[in-house]
Amino acid sequence: MKIAIDAMGGDNAPQAIIAGVQRARDEFDDTTFLVFGDEAQIKPLLTDNTRIEIHHTTEVITGEDEPVKSIRRKKQASMVLAAQAVKDGTADAFFSCGNTGAVLASGIFIVGRIKQIARPGLMPTLPTINTDDGFNLLDAGANASSKAEYLYQYGRMGGFYAEDVRGIKNPRIGLLNNGTEYDKGDDIHKEAYQLLKADKAINFIGNVEATNILNGPADVVVTDGFTGNAVLKTIEGTASAMMHILKHNLLESGLKVKIGAGLSKNAFKKVQAKFDTARYGGAVLIGVKAPVVKAHGASDERSVYYAMKQIHEMVAKKTVAKVITYFSSSKTDSK
Fold first, then answer.
1. Which of 89, 94, 100, 201 has its CA at a distance of 20 to 30 angstroms from the CA of residue 296?
2. Angle between helices 15-27 and 301-316 (to 10 degrees)
3. Does the keyword section mention Cytoplasm (predicted)?
4. Which of 232, 249, 278 is the last residue of a domain?
5. Dihedral of CA 300/302/238/235: which sign?
6. Each residue of 4-32: b (16+ CB within 10 Å) or e?
7. Where are the alpha helices (DSSP H) in the chain?
8. Which of 204, 90, 200 is nearest to 154 (CA)?
């Protein structure tokens, strides 16, 4: 198994990338990591280069670059070369913490879209309050606008991933809407509801509301990319703000509050662990011909390590090949 890695993408590159890769390398003896980036920066970070191959390039796609133009103009960028390695068959999967739009463009235009999939979707795994399983949200930003057919395919792909990679039997699929009644939402959501309901191969539970999704009503929550991205950032921002408020108030409060905080230390740790999204890995660009995983730009060593575990699982289980077979043998076509 070979994983192609953009070592120069993200706020903490290449240090966090290389540290996470080395940790994964030590765990998976069947995996070689193809690291694309500046050798002068990468090599000193390696404590052991076993099964880590450096592919030197100094060209980088930055956060300010326009996504599609950058992957066409910067042919030697670390991100582009990593994606190209997958297209050429040199690697089995592609990973980056870099410019989200450019990662999506690389996945769609270089790795390539599965023929039967109308629009690939970006799919993170997010926490739930009552369980440790979390839920998949898609699309979380690959497509700003959508059609009912896209939402239907997201439900099918998300359900397949939840069962194959996360091990959830008969995963529950919910459609994010502004009410739980079947006739809620705009025309696209009403049509998507009917498409999902009509497919007896999936466990569609109906509409779910944003106020309830962290309670885990569904294992997969389907939405358009604009709404999904807003929901994702709202959850991340709220979790970060709450932890900041708690820490600030405890530090600034009097002795009694600090003593109480000390007694509640384990409870606070559990809350922090619950919203530790790093352990779920990165966001999968599902609907392309090979595993493509995008981690947060601020990812640290742990985040990269868990993303490597996620990719290893997808490649080992041949998840994408199964998705291709699943859609090829079905009635759904891209539109």
1. 89
2. 50
3. yes
4. 278
5. positive
6. bbbbbbbebbbebbbbbbbbbbeebeebe
7. 15-27, 39-42, 67-73, 78-87, 100-105, 148-164, 187-198, 225-252, 255-263, 265-274, 301-316, 319-328
8. 204
Co-location of 5 and 53 in the same domain: yes
Do both 16 and 33 map to the same domain? Answer: yes
Are 62 and 185 in the same domain?
Answer: no
The closest alpha carbon to 103, from 73, 68, 138, 135, belongs to 68
The residue written with tokens 């459609």 in the block is: 175
At which of 239, 256, 278 does a domain end?
278
Regarding whether 185 and 57 lie in a shared domain, the answer is no
Do 127 and 111 lie in one domain? The reply is no
Task: Name the domain count of the chain.
Answer: 2
CATH code at 81?
3.40.718.10
Separation of alpha carbons 199 and 14, rounded Å: 45
Query: What would the two tokens of residue 308 be?
Result: 């490597």
| CA–CA dist 205, 211 (Å, integer) | 16
What's the token pair of residue 21?
């890769």
Do 168 and 250 sit in the same domain of this protein? yes
Range of the domain at 28: 1-117+287-335
DSSP three-state, residue 207 = strand
* 10-residue stretch averages of pLDDT, the chain, 335 residues long: 97 96 96 98 95 97 94 97 98 97 96 93 90 89 92 95 92 95 91 96 95 93 94 83 70 64 64 67 94 94 96 94 83 47
Collect all residues with Cβ–Cβ distance below 8 Å to 112 and sequence separation of at least 6.
87, 288, 289
270 and 161 within one domain: yes
Its pTM stands at: 0.87
Task: For the sheet with 283-286, list strands across it.
Answer: 52-56, 32-37, 2-6, 93-96, 292-294, 283-286, 121-123
251 and 318, same domain (yes or no): no
